Amino acid sequence: MTTILVTGGTGVLGRLVTERLRADGHEVRVLSRHAQQYSVDLVAGGSGLDAALAGVDTVVHCASSPRGGDEKAAANLIAAARRAAVGHLVYISIVGVDRVPFGYYRSKLAVERMIEESGLAWTTLRATQFHDLLVTLFEGLSKSPVMPLPAGVSDQPVAVAEVADRLAELAVSAPAGRVPDLGGPEVLSLRTLARAYLTATGRRRALLTVPLFGRAYAGFRAGGHLAPERAVGRVTFGDHVAERFGGRGKTR
């Protein structure tokens, strides 16, 4: 069976990718700052990275941080993957990184280009935002009686498990370059999504749409982060919050 290394393998996505691959009988190494065997800070690099990649056939690069460092981490990973003669590098990116001038998106796009120019055989999958990201957003915004939302913005959330399934499939397939995007099943306004969250959590909040400014907001408002033509996910946001919060009690 193939030996596969998953960066960010202790994270929400990486952990699921690891589980899928191991269930199919592959040897999987988990690399992250918190991993037991391959505890490596990709931004810092170091000899531990070479040891983790020794004998690896495929790398699934899930490690990422909105706080920065992705490009340095990718440079270190690519250099080590070349030294180890890794045969396939699979990368998870985000729909809209080339259309929305948002700082984190720009970094993800830069990593895409680094991988494309690395000389390694590669596959890149872009996905829309995970359900959990919206839940985290709404949890923060609903702490006050009035819940502010960016005006005119929609989203197309997708189940992280479905993205993990696709990445696991790509990891054991031939390098394919940029593959079709993976979008959630529905494009809905943030107001509609927020209402679904409030209903599932038993909360009552007034919703206030607030116009924002800047090129990034304009990009989101224009739908640059959406892939309606690739609405191939099955689990809706309503399904997700109903399952996650369905047992929650009285209205708050």
From TrEMBL:
Species: Streptomyces heilongjiangensis
Protein name per UniProt: SDR family oxidoreductase
Pfam families: NAD_binding_10
Residue ranges constituting the NAD(P)-binding domain according to the UniProt record: 8-132
